[in-house]
Specification:
Structural class: mainly alpha
Largest sheet: none
Helix content: 55-70%
Number of helices: 8
Shape: globular
């Protein structure tokens, strides 16, 4: 947390934008430093994500990419997923996002296909809420990963500047 709290605001905003591409979210999280601990940072990031407007969501979604299939997925799965993504984008006008952090690699394909098929039945307003929650979960997971990376750099003995 020391690095996160002490780094230049622009560096932190850039790192935060790699977690969730919403300028408003990144500014809000960065501008409320220092955080006493990682839990406080994650709570602030969650709160900022809950406050995303429709425009903020559109900005974040524009930078998201499709979830990837695990290595070794068979070609029929790629075809099914491509068709499901096309149907989803046609219905809702943006890329499908889902946080799959809690699933093992052998569960990812089934969960991904089941989720996209299920969410295709949502009405647009309901899907907006689900999408916002998935973006929040993705941002949280990415932020945790970034903090772990910053922590390992900060404790490295190679003489590099933490976070560089």
């Amino acid at each position: 947390m020391g690095h996160f709290n002490a780094a230049p605001a622009e560096d932190i905003r850039r790192m935060l934008l790699s977690c969730l591409h919403s300028l408003r979210w990144a500014r809000r999280v960065a501008d409320h430093r220092p955080y006493p601990d990682a839990d406080a940072l994650l709570a602030a990031a969650d709160e900022a994500a809950y406050d995303l407007t429709a425009a903020d969501l559109a900005e974040a979604l524009a930078a998201e990419s499709l979830p990837e299939l695990p290595d070794g997925a068979y070609s029929a799965a790629h075809t099914a997923l491509s068709a499901a993504h096309a149907a989803y984008e046609a219905r809702f006008g943006h890329v499908f996002v889902i946080c799959l952090d809690s699933f093992t690699p052998d569960e990812v394909l089934d969960q991904l296909l089941a989720a996209i098929r299920s969410r295709l039945t949502n009405d647009p307003e309901e899907e907006r809420g689900v999408t916002a929650e998935e973006l929040r979960r993705l941002a949280r997971g990415r932020l945790v990963t970034s903090l772990r990376g910053a922590g390992s750099r900060a404790t490295s003995s190679n003489g590099a500047t933490p976070g560089a």
